[in-house]
Amino acid sequence: EKLSNREREIDHLQAQLDKLRRMNFGSRSEKVSRRIAQMEADLNRLQKESDTLTGRVYDPAVQRPLRQTRTRKPFPESLPRDEKRLLPAAPCCPNCGGSLSYLGEDTAEQLELMRSAFRVIRTVREKHACTQCDAIVQAPAPSRPIERGIAGPGLLARVLTSKYAEHT
């Protein structure tokens, strides 16, 4: 119970501190600055006491690690794959008419449901660079039902019909 009271007091002081910081940001006042300094000291003291009760180590000088960005895991290799290659529309540079050389490719994978089996549709868009003006030419990406989504139209249709039409 003592620990929960401390946690409530910490939350209350944190809320007051945030409010005073907002007030201080709008108008400069010595009273507000002194009150903020006092509340920060109280907050640090209470956090240290709370951490000693819970066994955690609190050091305000140590910053928390930054949140890592989430990356999408690749589809399992066991799923069958179909590959679509998209080439630039014209074999020459649209700017100057010069010849194009292979530069690389962008790949995007989409999960699709075909005949009650999952399949990965891999779209490969080749990039070509002009040898004369250094322009980069690439076929446009095909449209998707959900922008940056991994579900294909067949899979979305199956999920929606099973959710809304078949379960009434």
TrEMBL record:
Pfam families (UniProt xref): LZ_Tnp_IS66, zf-IS66
Residues covered by the Transposase TnpC homeodomain domain: 12-83
Domain of life the protein comes from: Bacteria
Keywords on record: Coiled coil
Coiled-coil annotated spans: 3-56
Chain ranges of the Transposase IS66 zinc-finger binding domain: 92-134
Name of the protein in question: IS66 family transposase
Organism: Salmonella typhimurium
